[in-house]
Amino acid sequence: MKILYGMQRPDEGEIKVDGSPVTFHTPGDAISHGIGMVHQHFMLADNLTVLENVILGSEPRRGGVAVDFRAARKKIKEISDAYGLAIEPDLPVEELGVGARQRVEILKVLYRGARILILDEPTAVLVPQEVDELFDNLRGLVREGLTILFISHKLDEVLRVADAITVIRRGTTVATVDPKDVTARRLAELMVGSELPSPETRESTVTDVVALAVRDLTVRTAAGRTIVDGATFEIRKGEVLGIAGVEGNGQAELVEAIMGMRAGSTGTITLAGEDISQWSTLKRREAGIGYIPEDRHRHGLLLESPLWENRILGHQTRRPNSKGVWVDRAGARADTRRIVDAYDVRTPGIEVDAAALSGGNQQKLIVGREMSGDPVLLIASHPTRGVDVGAQAAIWDHLRTARAAGLAVLLISADLDELIGLSDSLKVILRGRIVADIDPTSVTPERLGSAMTGAGEGA
Q1: Could you say which of 45, 79, 102, 115 has the lowest number of CB atoms within 10 Å?
Q2: Beta-strand pair 210-220/265-271
Q3: Residue 314: left (phi > 0), alpha (psi -120 to 50), or beta?
Q4: What is the radius of gyration, based on Cα positions, of the chain?
Q5: Which domain holds residue 373?
Q6: How many separate domains does the chain show?
Q7: Cis-peptide, bond into residue 122, ω within 30° of zero
């Protein structure tokens, strides 16, 4: 997709747009040929309005100098109405939910005249109701003559929305099929050479020993706005506690408060019976908290550093990464090789930069790193977001194995099947408050999605 959008140059082959060969040196070249890309990680500035985000870099000018906001607002409204995107131009992006941000990203590429849209994992952060809305929007775009490349690892969604499906495995096209002639199971076999993995966990391994206790945890912004409101829960050894919520309802801030990354929190956090509320993030890490971050690029990896240096991150004061006050390079390298082997991280070697790995292999490296050193608690934020079904199955297996060995896991995920399948208990967070306890053995993704949006029973 980076090649089709001009972010990377191909070594061989040909790209044709409307039957004519093209060569892209920059994304600007791709945009000039009517190609727009909506990235898996949103590219929006929270502190700007929708209008300012949409026109950024393509500002209409009045008299060649001043930005013509009136013309921009009119054009945005026309596009929004024509494609049913329901976008209000003057709202700050920070006030938008994740579904609305997705529509802003689509509007942004349409504003630039895109007739070919590349959507990279567009449903990764959406609940089922928002996915339905997105698919209605996409069908409207197709009816208007646009072409959409929809990249996803959610095979049921591919089957729902696609007119044709191309399967790629290890960089090679292995099949092109008609959705009417193929099942999700068959697609999985084409993708990874095996059956579709399931996150289901059958036998309970929950003990009576409390690993983490959170009491009345409240997080406020510098301006005094409450974003986590009195959260209280316990996680026992051998238990996976799932937190379900539409993105932006306080789950990221809850995790940051438990990790000690966010100031402005009150309440108590107890790890293995010890109050850690005032501890630094490093001390919490040393006490046995593992952390798979929501955004692996921002918080999980140094992309321009080799894999063995990334192995050290967050674990720099403990063996095998250190000897006294010194970094133990030999020890870190040796343990990185162990992680690469044990977690099937596909890489030419441990000296390559993390940026050279696919998203799935980057994620497996992080999971291997955080599972090392016998953690007491693992915080897993979207552990399989943006990874293929093979890497997804491997990560689920590692989580199940660690749980059986007594690890306590706090699981945050937008994949409702993953939450329901892996969790021993489920809580729903809405506007910063934990509003429901749900039995994962009896709930459906649709009912869970309703509870997350405040439309469920007892809302």
Answers
A1: 45
A2: antiparallel
A3: left
A4: 23
A5: 210-452
A6: 2
A7: no
